[in-house]
Amino acid sequence: MSDQHRPQAPDPQDFLAVDSTLSAEEADIRDTVRAFADRELRPHVAEWFEAGTLPDPRGLARAFGGLGVLGMHLQGYGCAGAGAVSYGLACRELEAVDSGLRSFVSVQGSLAMFAIHRFGSEEQKAAWLPRMAAGEAIGCFGLTEPDSGSDPGSMRTRARRDGSDWVLDGTKMWITNGSVADVAVVWAATDEGVRGFLVPTDTPGFTANTIHRKLSLRASITSELVLEGVRLPGDALLPGSSGLGSPLSCLNEARFGIVWGAAGAARACYSAALDYAATREQFGGPIAGFQLTQRKLADMVLDVNQAGLTALQIGRLKEAGACHRNHISLGKFGNVAAAQRVARAARSLHGANGITLEYPVMRHMVNLETVATYEGTEEIHALSIGQAVTGIPAFR
Questions:
Q1: What 8-state DSSP symbol labels residue 156?
Q2: Helix, strand, coil proportions of the chain in percent (round to 5)?
Q3: pLDDT of 1 over the 60 cut
Q4: pLDDT tens track for 42-98
Q5: Active site residues
Q6: Could you give the domains of the chain?
């Protein structure tokens, strides 16, 4: 075989050339979001994480809106109408910086905006979606409650009719962007089943309390929502919402972003470990030359590339209209676990330096503890996959 026909050695940063299958448009979106993240986010995220907040969420929302990533996979109303893979790539590049930043975009676009787009009236869509796509209005999504996480059907938040109005009472917990949102999509039990409501956050009786003392997802605003006799007009109801399947379909959209985001976090930890191993010298040479270090890096490469391939295949299935919710369960279950393994190995390889914010690995490692839990714990997704392959539900 001549040298000109000899296959090139694998790229350490994309060992299986996963990105080589991207279209020119998809690659351009990847590069645009990556450049934005490198310029506007990465230099500041360790400081935000240490402070336990996002200092300018409205400015960040406008920046994301200008970038075009808020609700980018939705059609019309100021949204880009991008393909599933393009949206996934944006999530991957954002979570390669920090899970909290990808969560900001996911909650806005795949939860709050998606709920309005899928279940809202034409008036509701026109009133909210263009502003939310531009980052001029921030939304949040209220489903989880203090005593109702993996079993949302047991929610205690109630909405009752009072003449032509609705009155809501209840509490929602672990709500990203809750205390900076302009509108909350709140899910409540009614005499007609679970329904969704648009609650402007300046409505009397609505309060949002920021949750502090978090040890994970610190570069993110997390809140408790309290609704005490919140009176809404009849047109606050999302008319297309009907039953628990409505909010669960929104969660499935957001989980798709997690499948890609986890691949980004894994890649970031592996890249940091590879760079560190090449420059850190012990016993007269770089630790990259040690057998145990190379074994760790080999395991990381495997996880990173398998996660990337999983995300890409699920994205292609989604674009073809062939993506079942169990495909996304498998992606979240597998990719988050892979990212956790990579993050732990990368932290170990960094030694004592790995526990500082000078390097990203510990930050990713603790963030992934939240990613493994929200929008379906690993146990719930394992049971979803188990039911899919056996036909036997085992949730109870």
A1: -
A2: 55, 15, 30
A3: no
A4: 999 999 999 999 999 999 999 999 999 999 999 999 999 999 999 999 999 999 999
A5: 375
A6: 18-133 (1.10.540.10), 139-236 (2.40.110.10), 245-390 (1.20.140.10)
